[in-house]
Task: structure prediction
Amino acid sequence: MNRREALSRVSLMLGGTLSAPTLLAFDRWSQTTPENRKTGASILNEEQREVIARVAELIIPKTDTPGAIDAGVPAFIEVMLRDGYTKSVQDVFLTGLGNLAGKGLLTASPDQQTTLLKQLEANALANAKAGTVSFWQLIKELTVWGYFTSEAGIKSSLDYQPIPGKFEAIKIKPGQKDFMYGNQV
Amino acid sequence: MNLNINAQKAQTFDAIVVGSGITGGWAAKELTEKGLNVLVLERGYEIKHVEDYKTAMQDPWEFEHRGKITAVSAEEHYASMFFSAKEGSQFNFTNDKEHPYIQKRPFNWIRGYHTGGKSLIWGKHTYRWNREDFMANAKEGLGVDWPIRYEDLVPWYTYVEKFVGISGQAEGLDVLPDSTFLPPMAMTAPERHFKKSVAQKLNRPIVMGRVAHLTKPQPWHTAVGRASCQFRNRCTRGCPFGAYFSSLAATLPAARSTNRLTIIHNAIVKEIILDDHAQKAKGVRVIDQNTMEVREFYAKVLFLNAGTIGSTSILMNSKSARFPNGLGNDSDQLGRNLMDHHLAVGARADIEGFEDDHYFGARPGSLYIPRFRNWGNDKRDYLRGFGYQGGASRADWARGGTEPGFGADFKKKMTQPGPWKMSLTGFGEVLPDPNNRFYLSPDKTDKWGQPQVVFDADFSANDRAMRKDIMNDGAEMLEAAGFKNVTTYDNPAAHMGLGIHEMGTARMGKDPKTSVLNKYNQVHTCKNVFVTDGSGMTSASNVNPSLTYMALTARAASYAVAQLKAKNL
Result:
């Protein structure tokens, strides 16, 4: 077993906070490091950026609390795509962006956009196979991750307790926000 | 002429301690407190307690990659990626690319080359070994017999526990002897239910994990600047409160306060300098990891605390006319009987109900289930046993990555606590086997010209048989509690090293012909060299080893000082 196999198998076992697509980020030893990772150059064009922002905001929309765009999720996705993923995973992501643009996501009505994403999710679930990663999985997880680790997302949507100072079993009321202890890092 | 004499004097100490980790810190504390001038040599860079924990107070959004190690860093921290290294803590884990090693059979060598060593990244579960642990080899005719018994360590366990500060609860179990405790951490509601169900239906005790965190600091803890745990569970970034035990927070400050401590960093110990006539060590030869300058330091007594593989490598690399195969290696046991705990096997379940139960704070610890196999009247078709660490927690927002749905309702759902889940991970005892070993590569070196370590070890049929019970028994207990969707796992990629409990390779024993160290962790054939980290372990138990290393170190230091005073070293 080589390093790549060993790590991906152990990663799958660990489960926990991050699921297969994110862990597949480490499936990289057979790949060369993309040049833009070293230079910090962007790998996205304007249209691709717009698609990311639109999808992220559909996943976590602005409600009575900030949405994905307010929380800076699109920029986070771009950084992670550049630094965290292999060329092959990047390609899956870029192809997914292109497909959505081709289906007119950027000019569709809000209802049509929701329908497009529902189809995308249904297809991703139907075609999910161990060891593969879909565009939907990637952007969904990156959006959730980016939002709930952002300052705006945490402070508006969770009960932020950076220094709890104690540990105790407690009762909560229905609908009460979850705690955020800042220990996801 | 005078210059030379002065230079030699400046490089001469009463004792040299190699390594500043969990046992090096104890050696430094004990030796300085008993009046010796001590030099600690740390091969890595300097970390200062509190001020160098640069990420300790950072919030998630202050990390560019929100905690995830990038593709490039993951390659550099390959071994550490499996469990603990994250963006906020990767600097506390050794860079494998700069410090390479060879895996003849798979082995993950997870290290911390900096002040404090792995005491900054340890799991902190802290248990005494039991009476049987020190007798099992003799009873079963495996390896060699321990030259000590549990009773020899009792006063030293008590001594180090008080200073370390261990939270937990006395239970009166033979299989898991009690320590001196600070108040235990709390169990969550489903954990209390689990404990009660397993006690009633299976008659197995479940205890709160005993962890080296201050829950009620005592005057001797606050005296070195330590404070109570804040329940942030950001421990691997370094604890600015000094709440968990590390050599940086506890033993090194105690040693420093004697004014008899000198620490030199970036000092890679190349070899021990032997006085051939006296058959004693004179000192050590050291390479500065930045400047490559070679220097020598001298002392009456040497303590090797460089971590199991590090300490034994230094002995192996110290060749002389008297010891052509490495210092103290007449028995050919150096590098052999490499042990670890086998893990990455266990069971999990979903928990229904308890929706209005939650917990405030992030607990740096878990439940512990003591060994029950091959104990008392229980007899299995394999030797020794295993315990579990684990617990129940509520899923948080991260479940949203895999849970279907999106939009406003989805967002709202992720802001609320998710369902409870429970997971149990077994820690199994690995038997001593002379063919499980490491050695120094005859031709591959690192950038300091030092031979690379070659690992050649694997789990045995005994370990694999034990893993079946770990899965089944874990599932049985989760089912006894009425939990749902119980599943088991045994990761095929689990291998030696992942437990980060590397032990053996310079074992203690009664007979110099079959062991390297005597009952005081003293090299049989070179009396002023002591090895008191995991290298000396003769068998592995199934509970975490650090407390036993600490007790052995304090005991050996006391003995060494007495021998020095009696002019026997």
Notes: The longest strand of chain A covers residues 168-171. Chain A is about 55% helix and 5% strand. Chain A has two domains: 1-37, 46-157. Confidence is low (pLDDT under 50) at residues 6-32 of chain A.
